Amino acid sequence: MMDFLVVRHGSPRQLTVPERLVLSSFAELIIDTIQDAWPIDTGLSQSAWEFTLQASVAGEIGFTLLNDVDYVEFVHLAGTPANPPLWETLIPAVLGNIGPALNQALMVAIAATEREVASGIPFLDLLQRPSQPVAP
Fold first, then answer.
1. pTM summary value
2. 119-122, long-range: CB < 8 A, 24+ apart
3. Which of 14, 34, 49, 96 has the smallest C-beta neighbourhood within 10 Å, fewest atoms?
4. pLDDT for 1-50, tens place per residue?
5. Does the CA dihedral 28-33-34-38 come out positive or negative?
6. pLDDT number for residue 73
7. Closest CA to 21 of 108, 98, 109
8. What was the pLDDT predicted at 42?
9. How many CA atoms lie less than 13 Å away from 119 in the CB half-sphere?
């Protein structure tokens, strides 16, 4: 994605608010999908999934998924081996399913930003412009 942004912008840059909203919306969808597939005993490890964006520094586009429940390494589906832990197979599967749509939506948002820059809107103004939430 950074390569696409650099080609369109000419250099690395941070994401604008609308672009961060695209990334955040998809990160939330990924968390929801993980939670839907996560086994529930007490619900604690299922509800502990969260993400942090890496999008406000030039050269960073992404997010980190986190589940800080101390026993997350031992969570597995009933009737399946405990090794590997569920997150090791589930996260790549979810990212494989949702990732292409995320990349496409983010490319569309970046291209829209760059069209605005080309039309004369200062990039610094675009960084601070509020935006409407984006549905993946």
1. 0.86
2. none
3. 96
4. 888 998 998 888 889 888 999 999 999 999 999 999 999 888 899 999 99
5. positive
6. 92
7. 109
8. 80
9. 9
